[in-house]
What does this fold into?
Amino acid sequence: MNNNRRRSYRGRQQKSNFLRRRNGSSNTSTFNNGNVNFNRNGSMNNSHNVEKTMQKFQQLAKDAQSNGDPVLAQNYLQHADHYLRRLNELLEKKENFVDKSKISENLSPEGTFLEKKLS
It folds into this structure.
């Protein structure tokens, strides 16, 4: 084999995703200020994802407790509690949205309730 032969493939360039995302037009996260909420592509707006994350932290807390680390278990339980509160917020928003849509279906163009006739 000839070791002096030139390679026929290109080596990968060093990726700097952070800078590319920050300055690129396909920015999915906001980097305005450290105090501004940070959008994670809507992952924490999906109640199923939030519930799975909460269950993951509950399981991690159980594992930490069984390994004899009560501090870590408490930390995981606090994380799980955060996601439980987030899940409750999402479910409440969803319930309010469904209620509002039912009310708007029953409103006439003048804004009064229509009488539904039972047949």
Summary: The CA atoms of residues 106 and 118 lie 15 Å apart. The helical segments are 17-23, 47-66, 70-106.
